Amino acid sequence: MTFYKVISRFFDNGRFTVKMQTYRDCLDRRPNNQSFEVPDSDIYHDWFDTLEEAQAFMKEAKEA
Questions:
Q1: What are the residue boundaries of the structural domains of the chain, listed by start?
Q2: Nearest-angstrom CA–CA distance, 5 and 63
Q3: What's residue 64's pLDDT?
Q4: What global pTM score does this model have?
Q5: What's the rounded Cα separation, in Å, for the pair 21 and 54?
Q6: pLDDT over threshold 90, residue 5
Q7: Distance CA 61, CA 44 (A)
Q8: Bridge-partner residues for 44, per DSSP?
Q9: 36 neighbors 43 (Cβ within 8 angstroms)
Q10: Contact yes or no for 27/1 (Cβ under 8 A)
């Protein structure tokens, strides 16, 4: 199975980053979405079943 993880990071100074990682044949099921708070930012891990969904999410996040 193939899954796509989009990692979004929102920094306290207003900066934003987003990237995608692909996981092939190493996971039996899609993990749950997660979020983390660290001293200088908030980090979100959002998982998708298809590349198209992940890319649409990244595009929306960049336009927000």
A1: 2-63
A2: 19
A3: 74
A4: 0.91
A5: 10
A6: yes
A7: 11
A8: 8, 35
A9: yes
A10: yes
DSSP secondary structure letters along 6-54: EEEEEETTS-EEEEEEEEESS-SSPPPPEEEEETTEEEEEEEESSHHHH
Residues near 53 by Cβ (< 8 Å), separated by ≥ 6? 4
- Separation CA 39–CA 28 (nearest Å): 33
Locate 3 and state its tokens: 């899954």
| Sequence-ordered list of residues with C-beta below 8 angstroms from that of 6, at least 6 positions apart, any chain | 18, 19, 20, 44, 45, 46, 47, 48, 54, 57, 58, 61
Assign 63 a pLDDT band (cuts: 50, 70, 90). confident
Q: At residue 60, what are phi and psi to the nearest 5 degrees? A: -65, -40
φ, ψ of residue 54 in degrees (nearest 5): -65, -45
Q: Which residues touch 10 (CB under 8 Å, ≥6 apart)?
A: 16, 41, 42, 43, 44
